[in-house]
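INTERNAL AUDIT FORM
Audit reference: QA-55
Scope: verify that the stored structure record matches its stored sequence.
Auditor: D.O.
Record contents follow.
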Amino acid sequence: MRTPSALRSLARLAPRARVAAAVAAGWGLVETGAALAQAATLGPAIAALATSQPVHRSWLVALLGATAVRALARGAAAPAATALARPVRTELRAAALAQVVRQGRPADPDATTQLLTRGVDEVEAYLARVVPARARAALAPPLVIAFLLVQDWISGVTVLLTVVLLPIFLSLLGRAAHDAMAERWHDQQRLAAAFGDAVRGMTTLKSLNRSARAVARLDAIGERLTASTMATLRVAFASSFALELLSSLATALVALELGLRLVGGTVSLRTALVVLIATPEAYTPLRRAAASYHASATGVAAIADVVDLIGRARPHGTAPAPVAPPRLELVGLVARAGVPALSAVVPAGALVVLDGPSGIGKSSVLAVLGGLSDPTAGQVLVDGTDLADLARDGWQGAVGWVAQEPVLVGETLADAVRQGRALSPATVRAALAALGVDLALDHPLGEGATLSAGQRRRVALAACLVGDPVVLLLDEPTAHQDAASEAAVWAALEGSRATRVVVSHRPRPGDMVVTVRP
Protein backbone atom coordinates (compact mmCIF):
# COMPACT_ATOMS: atom_id res chain seq x y z
CA MET A 1 0.00 0.00 0.00
CA ARG A 2 1.33 3.44 -0.94
CA THR A 3 -0.78 5.39 1.48
CA PRO A 4 2.10 6.82 3.57
CA SER A 5 3.73 8.38 0.51
CA ALA A 6 0.34 9.79 -0.50
CA LEU A 7 -0.01 11.35 2.95
CA ARG A 8 3.45 12.89 2.72
CA SER A 9 2.59 14.35 -0.69
CA LEU A 10 -0.64 15.82 0.65
CA ALA A 11 1.11 17.19 3.72
CA ARG A 12 3.55 19.12 1.53
CA LEU A 13 0.66 20.81 -0.27
CA ALA A 14 -1.76 21.06 2.66
CA PRO A 15 -0.04 21.17 6.09
CA ARG A 16 -3.39 20.58 7.79
CA ALA A 17 -3.16 16.97 6.62
CA ARG A 18 -0.43 16.44 9.23
CA VAL A 19 -2.75 17.78 11.91
CA ALA A 20 -5.46 15.38 10.77
CA ALA A 21 -3.01 12.48 10.97
CA ALA A 22 -1.80 13.51 14.44
CA VAL A 23 -5.34 13.83 15.79
CA ALA A 24 -6.27 10.49 14.26
CA ALA A 25 -3.25 8.88 15.92
CA GLY A 26 -4.21 10.42 19.26
CA TRP A 27 -7.77 9.10 19.12
CA GLY A 28 -6.45 5.68 18.09
CA LEU A 29 -4.14 5.53 21.10
CA VAL A 30 -6.98 6.55 23.42
CA GLU A 31 -9.27 3.85 22.03
CA THR A 32 -6.57 1.17 22.22
CA GLY A 33 -5.65 2.16 25.76
CA ALA A 34 -9.31 1.98 26.79
CA ALA A 35 -9.62 -1.47 25.19
CA LEU A 36 -6.62 -2.74 27.14
CA ALA A 37 -8.09 -1.27 30.32
CA GLN A 38 -11.28 -3.19 29.60
CA ALA A 39 -9.30 -6.41 29.23
CA ALA A 40 -7.33 -5.74 32.42
CA THR A 41 -10.55 -5.32 34.45
CA LEU A 42 -12.94 -7.68 32.67
CA GLY A 43 -10.56 -10.66 32.85
CA PRO A 44 -10.16 -10.62 36.65
CA ALA A 45 -13.90 -10.05 37.10
CA ILE A 46 -14.83 -13.09 35.00
CA ALA A 47 -12.15 -15.18 36.70
CA ALA A 48 -13.51 -14.17 40.10
CA LEU A 49 -17.04 -15.14 39.09
CA ALA A 50 -15.84 -18.47 37.71
CA THR A 51 -14.03 -19.33 40.94
CA SER A 52 -16.78 -17.99 43.25
CA GLN A 53 -14.57 -15.20 44.53
CA PRO A 54 -15.80 -11.68 45.26
CA VAL A 55 -15.71 -9.14 42.45
CA HIS A 56 -14.11 -5.91 43.57
CA ARG A 57 -16.16 -2.80 43.03
CA SER A 58 -13.10 -0.97 41.74
CA TRP A 59 -12.93 -3.45 38.81
CA LEU A 60 -16.50 -2.63 37.82
CA VAL A 61 -15.92 1.10 38.12
CA ALA A 62 -12.76 0.86 36.03
CA LEU A 63 -14.52 -1.31 33.48
CA LEU A 64 -17.40 1.15 33.13
CA GLY A 65 -14.96 4.05 32.85
CA ALA A 66 -12.86 2.28 30.19
CA THR A 67 -16.01 1.37 28.24
CA ALA A 68 -17.21 4.99 28.33
CA VAL A 69 -13.82 6.31 27.21
CA ARG A 70 -13.63 3.77 24.40
CA ALA A 71 -17.15 4.63 23.21
CA LEU A 72 -16.33 8.34 23.35
CA ALA A 73 -13.09 7.85 21.42
CA ARG A 74 -14.74 5.77 18.73
CA GLY A 75 -17.71 8.13 18.43
CA ALA A 76 -15.65 11.32 18.36
CA ALA A 77 -12.86 10.10 16.08
CA ALA A 78 -14.87 10.08 12.85
CA PRO A 79 -16.45 13.56 13.26
CA ALA A 80 -13.09 15.02 14.32
CA ALA A 81 -11.33 13.48 11.32
CA THR A 82 -14.02 14.74 8.96
CA ALA A 83 -13.90 18.24 10.44
CA LEU A 84 -10.13 18.35 9.94
CA ALA A 85 -10.26 16.83 6.45
CA ARG A 86 -12.85 19.26 5.07
CA PRO A 87 -10.56 22.33 5.10
CA VAL A 88 -7.84 20.24 3.41
CA ARG A 89 -10.27 19.39 0.61
CA THR A 90 -11.16 23.07 0.21
CA GLU A 91 -7.50 24.05 0.24
CA LEU A 92 -6.56 21.45 -2.37
CA ARG A 93 -9.45 22.37 -4.66
CA ALA A 94 -8.56 26.05 -4.49
CA ALA A 95 -4.91 25.29 -5.28
CA ALA A 96 -5.86 22.98 -8.15
CA LEU A 97 -8.31 25.49 -9.63
CA ALA A 98 -5.70 28.24 -9.36
CA GLN A 99 -3.23 26.05 -11.22
CA VAL A 100 -5.78 25.32 -13.97
CA VAL A 101 -6.46 29.05 -14.32
CA ARG A 102 -2.74 29.77 -14.57
CA GLN A 103 -2.24 27.11 -17.22
CA GLY A 104 -5.28 28.10 -19.28
CA ARG A 105 -7.70 25.69 -20.89
CA PRO A 106 -6.58 22.13 -20.01
CA ALA A 107 -5.85 19.63 -22.75
CA ASP A 108 -8.52 17.32 -21.33
CA PRO A 109 -11.17 19.50 -19.67
CA ASP A 110 -13.60 16.69 -18.86
CA ALA A 111 -11.03 14.54 -17.07
CA THR A 112 -9.77 17.64 -15.26
CA THR A 113 -13.34 18.47 -14.19
CA GLN A 114 -13.79 14.99 -12.75
CA LEU A 115 -10.47 15.26 -10.95
CA LEU A 116 -11.39 18.63 -9.41
CA THR A 117 -14.84 17.43 -8.32
CA ARG A 118 -15.01 13.74 -7.45
CA GLY A 119 -11.26 13.27 -7.19
CA VAL A 120 -10.77 16.09 -4.66
CA ASP A 121 -13.90 15.02 -2.76
CA GLU A 122 -12.41 11.56 -2.35
CA VAL A 123 -9.30 13.11 -0.80
CA GLU A 124 -11.50 14.16 2.11
CA ALA A 125 -12.70 10.56 2.49
CA TYR A 126 -9.10 9.42 2.40
CA LEU A 127 -8.09 11.76 5.21
CA ALA A 128 -11.23 11.09 7.24
CA ARG A 129 -11.19 7.27 6.93
CA VAL A 130 -7.92 5.86 5.63
CA VAL A 131 -5.52 8.02 7.65
CA PRO A 132 -7.18 7.32 11.06
CA ALA A 133 -7.30 3.60 10.29
CA ARG A 134 -3.67 3.56 9.18
CA ALA A 135 -2.60 5.53 12.24
CA ARG A 136 -4.24 3.06 14.59
CA ALA A 137 -2.88 0.11 12.59
CA ALA A 138 0.62 1.48 13.09
CA LEU A 139 0.30 2.35 16.78
CA ALA A 140 -2.16 -0.12 18.32
CA PRO A 141 -0.40 -3.48 17.67
CA PRO A 142 2.89 -2.48 19.38
CA LEU A 143 0.94 -1.17 22.37
CA VAL A 144 -1.12 -4.38 22.60
CA ILE A 145 1.95 -6.59 22.21
CA ALA A 146 3.74 -4.70 24.99
CA PHE A 147 0.70 -5.22 27.21
CA LEU A 148 0.62 -8.95 26.39
CA LEU A 149 4.33 -9.36 27.05
CA VAL A 150 3.81 -7.95 30.52
CA GLN A 151 0.84 -10.25 31.17
CA ASP A 152 2.25 -13.43 29.58
CA TRP A 153 5.44 -13.38 27.54
CA ILE A 154 4.66 -16.60 25.64
CA SER A 155 1.36 -15.24 24.32
CA GLY A 156 3.03 -11.89 23.63
CA VAL A 157 5.73 -13.51 21.49
CA THR A 158 3.11 -15.56 19.64
CA VAL A 159 1.10 -12.45 18.77
CA LEU A 160 4.30 -10.59 17.86
CA LEU A 161 5.31 -13.27 15.33
CA THR A 162 1.86 -13.36 13.71
CA VAL A 163 1.52 -9.57 13.59
CA VAL A 164 4.92 -9.29 11.91
CA LEU A 165 3.76 -11.66 9.18
CA LEU A 166 0.50 -9.82 8.47
CA PRO A 167 2.07 -6.63 6.99
CA ILE A 168 3.97 -8.81 4.52
CA PHE A 169 0.70 -10.24 3.20
CA LEU A 170 -0.86 -6.79 3.31
CA SER A 171 2.00 -5.35 1.26
CA LEU A 172 1.65 -8.01 -1.44
CA LEU A 173 -2.12 -7.67 -1.61
CA GLY A 174 -1.93 -3.89 -1.34
CA ARG A 175 0.37 -3.64 -4.35
CA ALA A 176 -2.12 -5.54 -6.50
CA ALA A 177 -4.99 -3.47 -5.10
CA HIS A 178 -3.15 -0.20 -5.81
CA ASP A 179 -2.54 -1.16 -9.44
CA ALA A 180 -6.16 -2.24 -9.93
CA MET A 181 -7.52 0.94 -8.34
CA ALA A 182 -5.20 3.16 -10.39
CA GLU A 183 -6.34 1.45 -13.58
CA ARG A 184 -9.99 1.92 -12.57
CA TRP A 185 -9.48 5.63 -11.86
CA HIS A 186 -7.73 6.18 -15.18
CA ASP A 187 -10.55 4.35 -16.97
CA GLN A 188 -12.99 6.75 -15.30
CA GLN A 189 -10.88 9.66 -16.55
CA ARG A 190 -10.85 8.26 -20.09
CA LEU A 191 -14.62 7.70 -20.04
CA ALA A 192 -15.24 11.28 -18.87
CA ALA A 193 -12.98 12.67 -21.59
CA ALA A 194 -14.50 10.51 -24.33
CA PHE A 195 -18.06 11.33 -23.26
CA GLY A 196 -17.35 15.07 -23.24
CA ASP A 197 -15.73 14.93 -26.68
CA ALA A 198 -18.65 12.95 -28.09
CA VAL A 199 -21.28 15.32 -26.68
CA ARG A 200 -19.51 18.45 -27.92
CA GLY A 201 -18.92 17.03 -31.37
CA MET A 202 -22.17 15.10 -31.81
CA THR A 203 -23.56 17.54 -34.38
CA THR A 204 -20.46 17.19 -36.54
CA LEU A 205 -20.39 13.43 -36.04
CA LYS A 206 -24.02 13.18 -37.10
CA SER A 207 -23.38 15.23 -40.21
CA LEU A 208 -20.48 12.92 -41.15
CA ASN A 209 -22.42 9.77 -40.22
CA ARG A 210 -19.78 8.92 -37.58
CA SER A 211 -21.94 9.05 -34.45
CA ALA A 212 -22.30 5.26 -34.27
CA ARG A 213 -18.54 4.88 -34.09
CA ALA A 214 -18.35 7.41 -31.23
CA VAL A 215 -21.05 5.56 -29.31
CA ALA A 216 -19.24 2.25 -29.89
CA ARG A 217 -16.05 3.82 -28.50
CA LEU A 218 -17.92 4.94 -25.39
CA ASP A 219 -19.30 1.41 -24.98
CA ALA A 220 -15.80 -0.04 -25.26
CA ILE A 221 -14.41 2.33 -22.63
CA GLY A 222 -17.41 1.60 -20.39
CA GLU A 223 -16.80 -2.14 -20.70
CA ARG A 224 -13.17 -1.60 -19.80
CA LEU A 225 -14.22 0.41 -16.75
CA THR A 226 -16.55 -2.42 -15.72
CA ALA A 227 -13.73 -4.94 -16.08
CA SER A 228 -11.31 -2.84 -14.04
CA THR A 229 -13.98 -2.28 -11.36
CA MET A 230 -14.59 -6.01 -11.07
CA ALA A 231 -10.84 -6.61 -10.87
CA THR A 232 -10.63 -4.11 -8.02
CA LEU A 233 -13.50 -5.82 -6.20
CA ARG A 234 -11.89 -9.23 -6.62
CA VAL A 235 -8.64 -7.97 -5.11
CA ALA A 236 -10.54 -6.29 -2.28
CA PHE A 237 -12.54 -9.41 -1.43
CA ALA A 238 -9.45 -11.63 -1.67
CA SER A 239 -7.36 -9.40 0.57
CA SER A 240 -10.18 -9.01 3.11
CA PHE A 241 -10.76 -12.75 3.21
CA ALA A 242 -7.04 -13.46 3.60
CA LEU A 243 -6.68 -10.93 6.38
CA GLU A 244 -9.75 -12.17 8.26
CA LEU A 245 -8.56 -15.75 7.93
CA LEU A 246 -5.04 -14.98 9.12
CA SER A 247 -6.32 -12.91 12.04
CA SER A 248 -8.74 -15.65 13.09
CA LEU A 249 -6.06 -18.33 12.87
CA ALA A 250 -3.64 -16.20 14.88
CA THR A 251 -6.24 -15.59 17.60
CA ALA A 252 -7.13 -19.28 17.60
CA LEU A 253 -3.45 -20.17 17.99
CA VAL A 254 -3.18 -17.97 21.08
CA ALA A 255 -6.39 -19.46 22.47
CA LEU A 256 -5.07 -22.99 21.85
CA GLU A 257 -1.77 -22.47 23.63
CA LEU A 258 -3.53 -20.73 26.51
CA GLY A 259 -5.98 -23.61 26.84
CA LEU A 260 -3.22 -26.21 26.89
CA ARG A 261 -1.22 -24.25 29.43
CA LEU A 262 -4.33 -23.65 31.51
CA VAL A 263 -4.98 -27.39 31.67
CA GLY A 264 -1.34 -27.95 32.56
CA GLY A 265 -1.51 -25.38 35.30
CA THR A 266 1.27 -23.17 33.94
CA VAL A 267 -0.94 -20.12 33.56
CA SER A 268 -3.70 -18.72 35.75
CA LEU A 269 -7.29 -18.33 34.61
CA ARG A 270 -7.12 -14.60 35.28
CA THR A 271 -4.05 -14.10 33.06
CA ALA A 272 -5.46 -16.34 30.34
CA LEU A 273 -8.71 -14.35 30.21
CA VAL A 274 -6.92 -10.99 30.13
CA VAL A 275 -4.68 -12.16 27.29
CA LEU A 276 -7.54 -13.72 25.36
CA ILE A 277 -9.66 -10.56 25.59
CA ALA A 278 -6.78 -8.29 24.59
CA THR A 279 -5.38 -10.39 21.72
CA PRO A 280 -7.99 -9.43 19.05
CA GLU A 281 -7.10 -5.77 19.62
CA ALA A 282 -3.76 -6.42 17.91
CA TYR A 283 -5.45 -7.56 14.69
CA THR A 284 -8.61 -5.43 14.57
CA PRO A 285 -6.78 -2.21 13.53
CA LEU A 286 -5.10 -4.06 10.65
CA ARG A 287 -8.44 -5.35 9.40
CA ARG A 288 -9.98 -1.88 9.64
CA ALA A 289 -7.05 -0.37 7.76
CA ALA A 290 -7.46 -2.85 4.91
CA ALA A 291 -11.23 -2.27 4.76
CA SER A 292 -10.88 1.52 4.73
CA TYR A 293 -8.18 1.32 2.07
CA HIS A 294 -10.49 -0.50 -0.32
CA ALA A 295 -13.50 1.66 0.62
CA SER A 296 -11.55 4.77 -0.44
CA ALA A 297 -10.16 3.24 -3.62
CA THR A 298 -10.99 6.21 -5.81
CA GLY A 299 -9.42 8.67 -3.41
CA VAL A 300 -6.19 6.71 -3.07
CA ALA A 301 -5.88 6.43 -6.86
CA ALA A 302 -6.79 10.07 -7.48
CA ILE A 303 -4.41 11.58 -4.93
CA ALA A 304 -1.41 11.15 -7.24
CA ASP A 305 -3.21 13.05 -10.03
CA VAL A 306 -4.28 15.87 -7.69
CA VAL A 307 -0.77 16.22 -6.30
CA ASP A 308 0.71 16.08 -9.80
CA LEU A 309 -1.63 18.82 -11.04
CA ILE A 310 -0.86 21.15 -8.14
CA GLY A 311 2.82 20.27 -8.30
CA ARG A 312 3.05 21.66 -11.84
CA ALA A 313 2.87 25.18 -10.43
CA ARG A 314 5.86 27.06 -11.75
CA PRO A 315 7.94 29.24 -9.45
CA HIS A 316 7.36 32.91 -10.11
CA GLY A 317 8.47 36.22 -8.78
CA THR A 318 6.84 38.64 -6.41
CA ALA A 319 7.28 41.94 -8.26
CA PRO A 320 3.97 43.81 -8.62
CA ALA A 321 2.24 43.92 -11.98
CA PRO A 322 2.20 47.28 -13.80
CA VAL A 323 -0.80 49.53 -13.28
CA ALA A 324 -0.28 51.45 -16.56
CA PRO A 325 0.12 50.06 -20.09
CA PRO A 326 3.67 48.65 -20.14
CA ARG A 327 6.35 48.40 -22.77
CA LEU A 328 6.91 44.79 -23.85
CA GLU A 329 10.20 43.57 -25.21
CA LEU A 330 10.63 40.08 -26.63
CA VAL A 331 14.29 39.06 -26.52
CA GLY A 332 15.07 35.93 -28.56
CA LEU A 333 11.75 34.47 -27.45
CA VAL A 334 11.15 30.83 -28.39
CA ALA A 335 7.58 30.26 -27.28
CA ARG A 336 7.70 26.49 -27.69
CA ALA A 337 9.97 23.85 -29.16
CA GLY A 338 10.15 23.83 -32.94
CA VAL A 339 9.24 27.47 -33.59
CA PRO A 340 11.61 30.28 -34.54
CA ALA A 341 12.95 32.82 -32.08
CA LEU A 342 11.25 36.20 -32.05
CA SER A 343 12.69 39.55 -31.02
CA ALA A 344 10.43 42.58 -31.05
CA VAL A 345 9.43 45.66 -29.10
CA VAL A 346 5.84 46.65 -28.36
CA PRO A 347 5.76 50.29 -27.19
CA ALA A 348 3.60 51.15 -24.20
CA GLY A 349 -0.01 51.62 -25.28
CA ALA A 350 0.72 50.56 -28.88
CA LEU A 351 -1.22 48.15 -31.06
CA VAL A 352 1.00 45.52 -32.71
CA VAL A 353 -0.20 42.80 -35.09
CA LEU A 354 1.56 39.43 -35.07
CA ASP A 355 1.54 37.98 -38.57
CA GLY A 356 2.96 34.83 -40.08
CA PRO A 357 2.00 31.42 -41.50
CA SER A 358 -0.21 29.03 -39.55
CA GLY A 359 1.60 26.84 -37.04
CA ILE A 360 4.55 29.21 -36.69
CA GLY A 361 3.87 29.79 -32.97
CA LYS A 362 1.88 33.04 -32.82
CA SER A 363 -0.66 31.67 -30.34
CA SER A 364 2.19 30.25 -28.28
CA VAL A 365 3.72 33.74 -28.09
CA LEU A 366 0.43 35.05 -26.67
CA ALA A 367 0.38 32.21 -24.14
CA VAL A 368 3.85 33.21 -22.95
CA LEU A 369 2.89 36.89 -22.79
CA GLY A 370 -0.20 36.01 -20.77
CA GLY A 371 1.79 33.96 -18.25
CA LEU A 372 0.06 30.71 -19.24
CA SER A 373 3.28 28.98 -20.29
CA ASP A 374 7.00 29.40 -19.96
CA PRO A 375 9.20 30.08 -22.98
CA THR A 376 11.56 27.41 -24.23
CA ALA A 377 14.26 30.08 -24.61
CA GLY A 378 14.60 33.85 -24.41
CA GLN A 379 12.63 36.18 -22.21
CA VAL A 380 9.91 38.81 -22.08
CA LEU A 381 10.67 42.16 -20.44
CA VAL A 382 7.79 44.17 -19.00
CA ASP A 383 8.97 47.75 -18.57
CA GLY A 384 12.47 46.29 -18.25
CA THR A 385 11.49 43.63 -15.67
CA ASP A 386 11.62 39.96 -16.62
CA LEU A 387 8.10 38.55 -16.82
CA ALA A 388 9.27 35.59 -14.70
CA ASP A 389 9.98 38.02 -11.84
CA LEU A 390 6.41 39.34 -11.74
CA ALA A 391 3.77 37.89 -9.42
CA ARG A 392 1.94 35.51 -11.73
CA ASP A 393 -1.55 36.11 -10.36
CA GLY A 394 -1.10 39.87 -10.42
CA TRP A 395 0.13 39.82 -14.02
CA GLN A 396 -2.70 37.59 -15.22
CA GLY A 397 -5.16 39.86 -13.45
CA ALA A 398 -3.80 42.84 -15.43
CA VAL A 399 -4.04 41.08 -18.79
CA GLY A 400 -7.11 40.75 -21.00
CA TRP A 401 -7.15 37.62 -23.17
CA VAL A 402 -9.37 36.45 -26.03
CA ALA A 403 -8.41 33.01 -27.33
CA GLN A 404 -9.18 31.59 -30.77
CA GLU A 405 -12.14 29.70 -29.34
CA PRO A 406 -13.28 31.80 -26.37
CA VAL A 407 -15.41 30.17 -23.69
CA LEU A 408 -18.17 32.37 -22.28
CA VAL A 409 -18.81 31.78 -18.58
CA GLY A 410 -22.25 32.36 -17.11
CA GLU A 411 -25.90 31.68 -17.77
CA THR A 412 -26.67 34.87 -19.70
CA LEU A 413 -24.94 37.36 -21.96
CA ALA A 414 -24.71 39.84 -19.09
CA ASP A 415 -23.02 37.21 -16.88
CA ALA A 416 -20.41 36.58 -19.58
CA VAL A 417 -19.51 40.29 -19.75
CA ARG A 418 -19.62 40.97 -16.01
CA GLN A 419 -17.53 37.90 -15.00
CA GLY A 420 -18.44 38.49 -11.38
CA ARG A 421 -17.81 42.25 -11.45
CA ALA A 422 -20.39 44.73 -10.21
CA LEU A 423 -21.31 46.36 -13.52
CA SER A 424 -24.57 48.15 -14.18
CA PRO A 425 -26.81 46.98 -17.05
CA ALA A 426 -26.09 50.26 -18.86
CA THR A 427 -22.33 49.61 -18.73
CA VAL A 428 -22.75 46.05 -20.02
CA ARG A 429 -25.11 47.20 -22.77
CA ALA A 430 -22.72 49.96 -23.87
CA ALA A 431 -19.77 47.52 -24.01
CA LEU A 432 -21.74 45.14 -26.23
CA ALA A 433 -23.15 47.90 -28.42
CA ALA A 434 -19.64 49.24 -29.12
CA LEU A 435 -18.86 45.88 -30.70
CA GLY A 436 -22.11 45.57 -32.60
CA VAL A 437 -23.68 42.89 -30.38
CA ASP A 438 -27.38 43.73 -30.43
CA LEU A 439 -28.83 41.06 -28.14
CA ALA A 440 -30.80 41.13 -24.90
CA LEU A 441 -28.72 41.02 -21.73
CA ASP A 442 -30.65 37.95 -20.57
CA HIS A 443 -29.83 36.08 -23.79
CA PRO A 444 -29.06 32.51 -22.62
CA LEU A 445 -25.67 30.86 -23.03
CA GLY A 446 -24.55 27.26 -22.78
CA GLU A 447 -25.61 24.24 -24.77
CA GLY A 448 -27.94 25.16 -27.62
CA ALA A 449 -27.03 28.87 -27.49
CA THR A 450 -27.57 30.77 -30.74
CA LEU A 451 -24.40 32.87 -30.65
CA SER A 452 -22.23 32.58 -33.73
CA ALA A 453 -18.46 32.17 -33.59
CA GLY A 454 -18.01 35.85 -34.43
CA GLN A 455 -20.48 36.94 -31.76
CA ARG A 456 -18.69 34.85 -29.14
CA ARG A 457 -15.43 36.57 -30.00
CA ARG A 458 -16.99 40.02 -29.71
CA VAL A 459 -18.69 39.20 -26.39
CA ALA A 460 -15.38 37.89 -25.02
CA LEU A 461 -13.66 41.08 -26.22
CA ALA A 462 -16.35 43.20 -24.55
CA ALA A 463 -15.72 41.34 -21.28
CA CYS A 464 -12.00 42.12 -21.59
CA LEU A 465 -12.39 45.78 -22.50
CA VAL A 466 -14.87 46.56 -19.74
CA GLY A 467 -12.26 45.43 -17.22
CA ASP A 468 -9.81 48.08 -18.48
CA PRO A 469 -6.70 45.81 -18.65
CA VAL A 470 -3.22 47.25 -19.14
CA VAL A 471 -2.37 44.56 -21.73
CA LEU A 472 -4.69 43.02 -24.35
CA LEU A 473 -3.79 39.73 -26.02
CA LEU A 474 -6.14 38.80 -28.85
CA ASP A 475 -5.96 35.69 -31.02
CA GLU A 476 -7.73 36.23 -34.34
CA PRO A 477 -10.45 38.57 -32.97
CA THR A 478 -11.66 39.44 -36.50
CA ALA A 479 -12.13 35.83 -37.64
CA HIS A 480 -15.71 34.88 -38.56
CA GLN A 481 -16.71 38.56 -38.68
CA ASP A 482 -18.43 40.39 -41.50
CA ALA A 483 -17.10 43.73 -42.66
CA ALA A 484 -19.21 45.80 -40.24
CA SER A 485 -18.34 43.59 -37.26
CA GLU A 486 -14.65 43.61 -38.16
CA ALA A 487 -14.69 47.40 -38.32
CA ALA A 488 -16.38 47.51 -34.88
CA VAL A 489 -13.67 45.26 -33.44
CA TRP A 490 -10.85 47.42 -34.78
CA ALA A 491 -12.61 50.58 -33.59
CA ALA A 492 -12.96 49.16 -30.08
CA LEU A 493 -9.29 48.20 -30.07
CA GLU A 494 -8.27 51.67 -31.25
CA GLY A 495 -10.21 53.15 -28.33
CA SER A 496 -8.40 51.03 -25.72
CA ARG A 497 -5.49 52.48 -23.75
CA ALA A 498 -3.89 49.06 -23.23
CA THR A 499 -0.76 47.70 -24.84
CA ARG A 500 -2.32 45.47 -27.49
CA VAL A 501 -0.86 42.42 -29.21
CA VAL A 502 -3.18 41.01 -31.87
CA VAL A 503 -2.71 37.83 -33.90
CA SER A 504 -4.29 38.41 -37.29
CA HIS A 505 -3.82 37.20 -40.84
CA ARG A 506 -5.45 40.41 -42.09
CA PRO A 507 -3.47 43.39 -40.78
CA ARG A 508 -4.70 46.79 -41.92
CA PRO A 509 -2.60 49.27 -43.81
CA GLY A 510 -0.67 51.37 -41.34
CA ASP A 511 -0.70 48.78 -38.55
CA MET A 512 2.54 48.06 -36.71
CA VAL A 513 3.19 44.50 -37.86
CA VAL A 514 5.63 41.97 -36.41
CA THR A 515 6.03 39.04 -38.77
CA VAL A 516 7.02 35.67 -37.36
CA ARG A 517 9.11 34.00 -40.05
CA PRO A 518 10.20 30.35 -40.27
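Auditor finding: record pair retrieved intact. The chain has two domains: 3-311, 328-515.
Action required: none
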